[in-house]
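Batch job 17 of 40 flagged for manual review because the log was empty.
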Amino acid sequence: MKIERNQGVAWRKVGDEMVVIHLARHRIFGLDGTAGRIWESLSEPQDLETLEAIASKGAPMGADVINGVHLFVADLAEEGLVDVAGELSEASKGDTVVDFPRIEWREELQQFAGQCHLVPGQSHQCNQNPGGS
């Protein structure tokens, strides 16, 4: 199974947080540090094992890394931020809260216009007009 970023997504690292914008859905997301590192690794399609290895390096003591990564990727896919080739295994939150890695916040964009100034290596999508004109 391969996971890759959706083509209609822009992003930028802001401090310790990765901010991701879904241009077509007009939604903005904040990813925590480990989730941001996973997002950066998706510059090329990755498999779940690679993402699990990235997450395990920053995992809090006792974190269920495998379940957490599966839930995180499922959340990204549900929001339309990534495309998943293949089927995700059935990860379950069960009775415990799995919050590693995670989308820390999400908001609707009320207005989206203007032009971003990009740092090399970050999203080229900010230079495109999301309205298509």
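Reviewer: the log was empty due to a logging misconfiguration, but the result itself is present. The chain has one domain: 2-127. Unflagging and moving on to job 18.
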